[in-house]
Design goal:
237 residues, five-stranded parallel sheet, two-stranded antiparallel sheet, binds zinc ion
């Protein structure tokens, strides 16, 4: 574990529950942590607006975390909305497609996110990329799978002659365990911060604060987050 302290990490940070938990995870183990976020023409850019406050509050958690948290990089990837026609980038109903994937799946998005992050990490001298991809409890997005990430790590390192590590701390845990991980990393204060300040809702609903956070309560992302929080409270992992 000690050698981790020598590493510098770039965290894919969207302002959602998963990436905020990943950021706390990275701050607890790497000597330098930077963040990257993408504006890709999301239907609701609200998750981008919560990022600066989250970064400020998470850095205030401890002097150690404050010392480790470095620059935030916000990049324009509007190219994605020019390429894709999905429920994440256009005002169309969320539904299942003929290929068995929901139309919230944006083909190539996570691959492109990692590729761009790797390019920035190269320039910044960071050797670890951290992302909230997860195979458990999820919509089955193929670019969130462990095999996709491992293959991408190999491709990136071959293509850039680097030794980048792609870390996905949430890969094998469910949403209840993600809440539990936040508690282990930063106690109930971090759970509360994630509950009230992160954004997950696909529909961009922010008004109501439920037990599990803000959101419409009915879209797939809200449903998953709410169920995970209930199970976390009930100790059902
Ligand atoms: Zn929602």
């Amino acid at each position: 574990m000690n050698n981790c302290k020598q590493d510098g990490a770039l965290v894919l940070f969207s302002g959602g529950q998963d990436s905020t938990t990943c950021l706390a995870w990275a701050l607890s183990r790497y000597r330098r942590v930077e963040t990257i976020g993408y504006d890709y023409g999301q239907r609701h850019a609200i998750e981008l607006t919560v990022r600066p406050t989250l970064l400020e509050k998470i850095s205030a958690f401890s002097p150690e975390w404050q010392g480790r948290l470095g620059e935030d990089h916000m990049l324009d990837l509007s190219l994605i909305s020019q390429l894709s026609h999905t429920a994440m980038t256009e005002d169309i109903a969320i539904e299942m497609q003929d290929n068995g994937l929901p139309n919230t799946f944006v083909p190539g998005r996570n691959l492109m996110f990692m590729l761009v992050a790797a390019t920035l990490a190269y320039r910044r001298g960071l050797n670890v990329l951290v992302g909230g991809m997860c195979e458990t409890d999820y919509s089955g997005y193929p670019d969130c799978r462990d095999d996709s990430m491992k293959a991408l790590q190999v491709a990136l390192n071959l293509g850039m002659a680097t030794r980048l590590k792609l870390e996905t701390p949430l890969m094998w845990i469910n949403k209840a365990q993600t809440w539990q991980m936040a508690e282990h990393l930063g106690g109930s204060a971090l759970v509360d911060l994630i509950r009230t300040d992160t954004h997950t809702c696909y529909l961009g609903e922010r008004g109501l604060l439920h037990d599990w956070g803000h959101g419409c309560g009915t879209c797939p992302a809200c449903a998953l987050r709410a169920r995970g929080y209930e199970q976390y409270l009930a100790g059902e992992f």
